[in-house]
Amino acid sequence: MGGRGGYAAPVTTDPPAFDGDFTAQLDTLFAWRRDVRRFRSDPLDEATLRACLAAAHRAPSVGNSRPWRFVRVSDPARRGAVADSFARCNAAAAASYDDARAAHYRALKLAGLREAPVHLAAFCDEATGTGLGLGRATMPETLAYSVVGAVQCLWLAARARGIGVGWVSILDPEAVTTILDVPPHWRLVAYLCLGLPQEEHPDPELERHGWQQEDPRGAELYER
């Protein structure tokens, strides 16, 4: 029977025990979660891809809204149009640097759009009624943050299955939204390339190619 306020009586279940070997493997998974730009063209197994999407759907979301909407981009014309958007935005970004830095920028590989067998666009459904607005009245951006959480869950699930993921942010979001012909209240959060990596590295590519050094501040804990 329902309790006070219409709530059902809670049912508890013993959680699984995660031993030291599991947590060590989990730490290794986090360490090897890398932004991949160099893909093999081999197709991905459909069941494996669906398992990664199922993991994404287990992500936390504000008010249990689950606002993520994943679009697989398979049509060659649409994929080509997205790649063209990247090329335009990438050229504009290079032009914003001085000559030496621009040359370095142009030498970087910043996307795998032409090689990756799977393109996934992750949108936030800003008009979703699921959750009835719970938890986001003062911070509406948490709806989009929820999509980012789903992307991270998908990313880790993919990495655990040997699949690489690359997040392409050098795009015009309005152009991509038009190219993919999605509802106007869907906002682009991430455009992802998925595929088997050509090579494996434990360090970030931008550090390996000298674009930047690791910033230790992100690992610090600030006390107040």
The amount of helix comes to: 25-40%
Average pLDDT works out at 92
Number of domains: 1
Number of helices: 7
Largest sheet: 4 strands, antiparallel
- CATH third-level topology: NADH Oxidase
Strand residue percentage: 5-15%
Order of helices and strands: HHEHHEHEHEH
**Biggest β-sheet: strands ordered side by side in the sheet:** 1-2-4-3
Briefly, what CATH class?
Alpha Beta
Can you characterise this structure?
It comes from Methylobacterium komagatae. Pfam families: Nitroreductase. InterPro entries: BluB (IPR012825), Nitroreductase (IPR029479), Nitroreductase-like (IPR000415), Nitroreductase/BluB (IPR050627). GO terms for molecular function: 5,6-dimethylbenzimidazole synthase activity. With 224 residues, the protein is an alpha+beta fold. The protein has a single domain, classed as NADH Oxidase, CATH 3.40.109. It contains 7 helices and 4 strands, in the order H-H-E-H-H-E-H-E-H-E-H. It has a 4-stranded antiparallel β-sheet with strand order 1-2-4-3, with helices on both faces. Helix 2 packs antiparallel against helix 5 and helix 3 packs antiparallel against helix 6.
